[in-house]
Fold this sequence. Notes:
With 133 residues, the protein is an alpha+beta fold. The protein has a domain of 90 residues: Roll (Structural Genomics Hypothetical 15.5 Kd Protein In mrcA-pckA Intergenic Region, Chain A), CATH 3.10.290. It is 31% helix and 14% strand. The protein contains 6 helices and 5 strands, in the order H-H-E-E-E-E-H-E-H-H-H. It has a 5-stranded antiparallel sheet with strand order 2-1-3-4-5. A hairpin with a 4-residue loop joins strand 3 and strand 4. Helix 1 crosses helix 2. GO terms for molecular function: RNA binding. This is RNA-binding S4 domain-containing protein. It holds the Pfam family S4. Keywords: RNA-binding. InterPro entries: S4_RNA-bd (IPR002942), S4_RNA-bd_sf (IPR036986).
Amino acid sequence: xxxxxxxxxxxxxxxxxxxxxxxxxxxxxxxxxxxxxxxxxxxxxxxxxxxxxxxxxxxxxxxxxxxxxxxxxxxxxxxxxxxxxxxxxxxxxxxxxxxxxxxxxxxxxxxxxxxxxxxxxxxxxxxxxxxxx
Length: 133
């Protein structure tokens, strides 16, 4: 564990509690105004203190987290959730509409989109075209 007097940056903290997959994503969120403290945008280098409440906007949802413990390294999720309290208002949670995970992968759903070879042969046969063309 790190020395108690060591300063902990907000980007490193958001990464360690698993709100972002990488530390650079957390830093980019800070730089792009997606992380706020008392309604003001903050820099990635801002020091985290216990009791602070941050408004964080991720791709999945909007969070309001209250810091209850400091994490200097990335830990498993069950341990990470012990170091912050989710104080997001219920009306914010209602606004979030989760989409199927297949939507975000960029891949087409199975059997949707372009016809298969068999379907093309059937279409050509129906239209009276020969399959050898």
